[in-house]
Amino acid sequence: MNQFSVLLQIAFRNLFANFLNIVIGAIVFIGTLLFVVGSSLLNNMEGAMSKSIIGSVAGNIQVYSDKSKDELSLFGSFGAPDIADIPDFSKIKSALMNIENIKSVIPMGVNNAQVAYGNTLDVALEKLRKTVNQKNKGDHSDALRRTMESYKSHIRQIVSVIQGDLRNLSALAKLQPSDKENMATLKKAASEQFWNSFDADPLGHLEFLENKIAYLLPDSDFYNIGYVGTDIDSFKNNFDRMEIVEGQMVPSGQRGMLLSKFVYEHQFKLKTAHRLDEIKEAMENKHSAIARDPNLQFLIKQNKTQTREIILQLDPVSTAKMRKALQIYLPSAEKDLAILLPLFLDVNDKNFIDRYNFFYSTIAPMIELYRLRPGDAITIKAYTKSGFIESVNIKVYGTFQFKGLEKSGLAGGLSLMDLMSFRDLYGFLTPEKLAEAKHLEKAAGVKIIDRDKAEEELFGGAWDSAVSTGSQTDIDEKKELGMIRKKDSSVNRAYTQSEIDDGVVINAAIILKDPSKIKETMKQIKTVSDKNQLDLRVVTWQKAAGMIGQFVLVAKVILYLVVFIIFVVALVIINNAVMMATLQRVQEIGTMRAIGAGRSFVLAMILVETVLLGLTFGIAGTAAGSLIIKVLGHNGIPAMNEFLYFFFSGPRLYPALGVGSIVWSMVIIFIVTIVSALYPAIIATRVSPITAMQSEE
Amino acid sequence: MKKNILTTIILFASFLQIPVYAETLTKEKMVSILKGIDMRIRSSGDYKSLVYIEQREKGKPDLVREALVYRRDVDQKLMILFTKPRTESGKGYLRIDKNLWFYDPTVGKWERRTDRERIGGTDSRRQDFDQSNLAEEYDPEFIGEEKLGNYNVWVLKLAAKPGVDVAYPVVKYWIDKATGNYLKSQDFALSGRLMRTSYNPKWQKLFSESKKADLWYAQEIRIYDEIDKGNSTLILIKSVDLQELPQNIFTKAWLESKSR
User: Fold this and answer.
1) Which of the two residues, B13 and A293, has the higher pLDDT score?
2) Which one-letter DSSP state was computed for residue A250?
3) Among candidates A192, A154, A158, which has minimal Cα distance to A317?
4) Interface test with B, best of A134, A175, A455 (most B CBs within 10 A)
5) Is the pLDDT of residue A79 over 90?
6) Mutation test of the interface with chain B: which of A210, A475, A490, A492, choosing the one with the most B Cβ atoms within 10 A?
């Protein structure tokens, strides 16, 4: 004990005796600080991200068919992964629910769909066509007549806007023959005579507008929607961060869709309004200024040049109303709305909030802010498993978001669709469908010709075999058309739980009662799958998340690599420094040996000195790192973009100091210092008193 | 000596790949050939056919369709109405002027499509079912003469005229010198990438009363996808009917009425 106290005294005395010790200390300090801060941040981020992934779509475990060629990637991957289907979800649900730790099994299928709206005139004409069909079916009500007149005046307004565009074009460039032809067609469509004769032949007039005019307007909207087909009730009950923002839940068992609020705002909102929202968000939350921020200036430029989406929505009455409102607000005597709107949208830091408020209070009520509203039905289409496009009409009941992940594009990238509609779009080939295709193929008696042999087989025969004389055939149209399916109104009913469960799904999320037992439960699932021949592949939430799930792992590998390099450098430097220090102290060591100090004492002295040096600066580094984490934990690290929002599981990450980080940093320091000092210490033990005295002379 | 000179010329010509006795077609001759193709395929009256379409893709079950194709070439109108299988029946395409509409009775909606549309999810395009407008839509360039199997063919490269909307901006045609029918065609993207190769090995002619001449149609078209190798489409014309069609047949209302 006495000896150790002496060693400590010597070590403390030599702690700052050498400049090299300060250099070593600084490296150790930086290394430990980086390790403590980095590992604490990444551990906290991993915890937060797991909450985002588990709580938004993945659950604790995901299962999918083991026949799949690719791996499941819930948040997207390069290309379209080839995931085989699970033909009957009810089978796996009943088998897996016998495992004690499983709370629930939620059916799923991730897919992409397209929603295509025609251009503004196509949409307006479609509405008018519907009212014409209603009238032709016998509806002669005043309400319908008023609606028709309103649609007609809107269409006339759009026609006049297109006419204006062509006139502007003719002022700038020489018109092509086709433009002149279009001018004449537009003149006809805008004439009083055309509209006066509309009611006499509404369908003929509609065909004229649809085929001769509408294609001139190039403003079609096309939306891509990623969705999860699922049992929406079960989803809501198990992913408790999910909340309805607008509208309502899809009624139990009904077909329907919930749009992600994020998608709804980013895709379906009027672009001018969305850009105004973005500017406001940047000014309020990021303290950006229009005068300084080129991104905001670009948004304003887009708003000023893209006012047609507002103008095309207006009928003559709304146009006059909006013009008057803007003339008073700006104020301006300008009569052309196409000039007034850019003037109004040319905002700066000073007038932005006032104009933003005016937009929402006065302009927005005159137009449709969103392409669709909760309660509307949309037609969505998706590529089926077989490669062709299938469409369904589906009612959008509302929008939803995950609490704390409102601004995350990753968590908010997927909308929800009922399982029955999902199966329609997935295009699962039933045995009946396959049999029908086989029958048609057989009846056609087609010879399959390989691509490489096509020319030889097709053109290798007699030179005149390519021509023959056909015969006029009376095609029995009624027989052929008899197969045409009528609209099936029975699809819009409530489905029973067994109807929802009995059918094809792509994957299933599993929620555990005790998530800490995930490994044991995965083993149990595999056993149940093998026993019941379910052919399931079982993956953790992290694996199911694909590249996103691996992000923190990659970040950790990079951190540990950096820390490893720092400590390898430290090890080499410490080794050299201690070696030099030892050589400088040969006389001191020799004297100590001469007055009775043993080899073990010298060895211990060098080691204790080095370990003390490492620990002193290591503790300082750990303390500084802990302090940084403490401050960050108090203030939070803001999520500067939507990806960080997902990784932080909210707008800020509040990191907490992990005991593991501190313990590991101390262990690393201890090992590094011992290893690096061992060789110089052994060298020091070999110093003999006589040699030491002689070297002095 | 003379023999040696001749041999040298032939060798030199073959080295430069110049056909020694090849006939080079003039622009006028090429346009006349294209007009000939257009005129043979074009009908002055109405046209109706029953077609079988089959799409083969690697690792997927075959996609099989049957459809009625209606044409009124003088008005540039076309309708493809799917009749089989049951899940596809009632779906259809309607081409009027520059518009190609798609109708799906299950959703009761019309959608605008382009000439690049994969008809019924196959490798076929609208052009494969429609009348031919090669002379109006393309400028020809003579590539050379070739042997396609046992057939002597001219090879023409056609580039779309400015402002004309076609599925492929560049196409190559292998035209049978004996009959004037094209037996092979290749479609290219603007970048020059080969997209599809099609073979028309069987042509049929049918006397048309309204035309007072033969109407020609490719009875079999085999399309090979050059991007997704292994994918192919087969179109078979099972029967043709040249009787007059109802006047209002090329309207949205008519197609809608078939599946109400």
Assistant:
1) A293
2) P
3) A154
4) A455
5) no
6) A475
Query: Above 90 in pLDDT, residue A400?
Result: yes
- Count of pairs with CB atoms under 8 A, one residue in A, one in B: 199
Q: Which of B201, B212, B196 is nearest to B179 (CA)?
A: B201
Q: What is the CA radius of gyration of chain B?
A: 21
- In whole angstroms, give the CA distance from residue A688 to residue A484: 106
Question: Residue B9: which pLDDT band, with cuts at 50, 70 and 90?
Answer: low
- What is d(CA A270, CA A302) in angstroms, rounded to the nearest whole number? 13
**Record: contact B84-A483, CB cut-off 8 A:** yes
For residue B149, give the nearest of A459, A475, A484 by CB distance: A459
Query: Domain count of chain B?
Result: 1
CA–CA separation, A559 and A246 (whole Å) = 43
Q: Which residue has the tokens 């802010």?
A: A369
pLDDT band for position A309 (cuts 50, 70, 90): confident
pLDDT at position A584, please? Answer: 77
The average confidence (pLDDT) of chain A is 87
Q: Residue B62 and residue A441: Cβ atoms within 8 Å?
A: yes
Task: Among B54, B224, B241, select the one facing A474 at the smallest CB separation.
Answer: B241
Of B49, B85, B106, the CB nearest to A437: B85
Q: Cβ contact (<8 Å) for B224 and A211?
A: no
pLDDT band at A80 (very low <50, low <70, confident <90, very high): low
Are residues A485 and B106, on separate chains, in Cβ contact within 8 Å?
A: yes
**Secondary structure (DSSP) of B157-221:** EEEEPTT---S-SEEEEEEETTT--EEEEEEE-TTS-EEEEEEEEEEEEEEETTTTEEEEEEEEE
Assign residue B214 the CATH number of its domain.
Answer: 2.50.20.10
A463 interface with B at CB cutoff 8 Å: yes
Strands B77-84 and B63-72: antiparallel
A431's tokens: 């045995």
Cβ-defined contact of B62 to A475 (cutoff 8 Å): no
Q: Are A343 and A336 in contact (CB under 8 A)?
A: no
A460 min Cα distance to partner chain B (Å): 5
Contact A463 B150 (CB under 8 A): yes
Domain assignment of residue B36, given as a range: 25-257
Sheet of strand A102-108: strand arrangement: A102-108, A507-512, A61-65, A536-540
User: What are the φ and ψ backbone dihedral angles of A640, each rounded to 5 degrees?
Assistant: -80, -15
pLDDT value, residue A412: 84
Number of neighbours of residue B257 by Cβ within 10 angstroms: 10
Predicted local confidence at residue A613, as pLDDT: 85
- ipTM tops 0.95: no
Any idea where the domains of chain A sit in the sequence?
2-51+548-696, 119-219
Contact (CB<8Å) B96/A485: no
Q: Return the SS3 of A183.
A: helix
Confidence of residue A574 (pLDDT cuts 50, 70, 90): confident
